[in-house]
Amino acid sequence: MASSPTPSFSMFPRFLSFAYGVLIFSSFCHCRRLQDSLKGLTLDSVRDFLTREEDTIVFSLIERAKYPYNSPTYDPSYLHGKFSLVEIFVRETEAVQAKAGRYQNPEEIPFFPNNLPLSLAPPYKFPQVLYPAAASVNVTKTIWTMYFNDLLSLFTTRGNDGNYALTAASDLVCLQALSRRIHYGRFVAEAKYRDAPQDYNPAIRAQDKDALMKLLTSESQEELVKRRVKKKAMVFGQDITLDENDTGDSNSNRTNYKVDPSIAYHLYGDWVIPLTKLVEVEYLLHRLD
Amino acid sequence: MASSPTPSFSMFPRFLSFAYGVLIFSSFCHCRRLQDSLKGLTLDSVRDFLTREEDTIVFSLIERAKYPYNSPTYDPSYLHGKFSLVEIFVRETEAVQAKAGRYQNPEEIPFFPNNLPLSLAPPYKFPQVLYPAAASVNVTKTIWTMYFNDLLSLFTTRGNDGNYALTAASDLVCLQALSRRIHYGRFVAEAKYRDAPQDYNPAIRAQDKDALMKLLTSESQEELVKRRVKKKAMVFGQDITLDENDTGDSNSNRTNYKVDPSIAYHLYGDWVIPLTKLVEVEYLLHRLD
């Protein structure tokens, strides 16, 4: 906790951007690395990632639900300007995180990519498993609109407790978790494609979105995911007490869930799974470019 | 998602700081408000807050444990400077959160209060329940040192996956949750004092820390809290599957906890509860100033 001078990312030597040259050069080796990295991308590893991300999403909703809706967070007139507190908060926080290197990881996509500062952390060789011509699929605007217009009022109580900065910080954690899961559709699509390219090539060549959507859809698997997410909302959102059986049985506090488990079910059914599949389809459409 | 000009907190009119004048003036009414607010601060409300905060702390540890230790996050040489990535990240994030008004809420205390920008959000009348002469108790340096020197290596795996920005962001969420809980000791002490001032006044007048610590200690209650936190780490950190009984029974995946439940138990026993009591004692020592 040294006191002065106050350190900031802007203090670090500009020559670090030299490292970006190294990164660009290294992209020439992309084909070789892609081959190597794909060994690590399997249908199993993709499923493990998505399952773990469900926990993160449910935790983030429960934490946001600590605060009421807090409408001034979303009302531009609250700050006497054009932009809401949450939009400014997300932009400025993403700038700090960009400088710390967050968006070097291809799994991470900012909501406001324009004018983001460069990373001042040295480049890290994240596995490059995505097909470059397809990797830029981006539905952040749809996620932003869905979250604020449709989802937020469903799992927060009405009211105002003044904690607008904490509210915006919790919103950002939710948005980042949802975006990471939905954009992971690119990795899902790549793993599925590598597993059976012959199944996808005709529809890709025909640029047939409906056929691709059909190939990517498994209603029974989707129902299983929705039910598991609902159960996670029940288990993680219950009030834990030291009752005699000490098992964490989610039946014991059925009325005290911090987020309604059926909201978690519908979040996945109505938005998370459809948007992930949209990302998968858009990715595959460019998989042979 | 307007693109230009990029909004930032610095764009907002300076006359908003006029609002601070209003806030200062309003402190003249502090006694009246203190009396009103205290109606809302009870031993029950304090207990509810602490119990809910346990969930937040356990969630935050589980989320940090997604990433390995990631030592470059903590090594100043990684950024070729005097400060670690995590320290710079926390300072810059706290600055963004300060501008959004986070530290208007007396429950929130920054780790790096020097040179924080003023809040640009209009003042919000948070209940002023703390006794002003005692409210400034601060153990953030102790929490910072405990977290990085003692706790972090206990619940993260060895290794390095390059996600240093995500790691620092997760660390900050843990630190903020721990700090909020520990500094809530000020509210705990105020509620206990208001409940039975006659029990505390002699020890406060004698400035007898040991006597105060004894008054504030209930070993059976502390054991209950530690066991409940351990159980939360079991329930929230298990792998949830759609097994036949569908109850979220934490016995079913006993070896897959994302954070070792005994670490959560010892975190509370060795640090969270003792530090909260330290805050309570320090607060009470100034309760008659």
TrEMBL record, chains A, B:
Keyword Isomerase: yes
GO BP annotations listed: amino acid biosynthetic process; aromatic amino acid family biosynthetic process; chorismate metabolic process
GO molecular function: chorismate mutase activity
Cellular component GO terms, alphabetical: cytoplasm
Taxonomy, superkingdom: Eukaryota
Segments forming domain Chorismate mutase: 168-280
Coiled coil, from the record: none
Spans traversing the lipid bilayer: none
Any Pfam family hit: CM_2
Pathway: Metabolic intermediate biosynthesis; prephenate biosynthesis; prephenate from chorismate: step 1/1
Catalytic activity: chorismate = prephenate
Record bears the keyword S-adenosyl-L-methionine: no
Keywords assigned by UniProt, alphabetized: Amino-acid biosynthesis, Aromatic amino acid biosynthesis, Isomerase
Record-listed E.C. numbers: 5.4.99.5
Record-given protein name: Chorismate mutase
Native organism: Phoenix dactylifera
Gene that produces this protein: LOC103714256
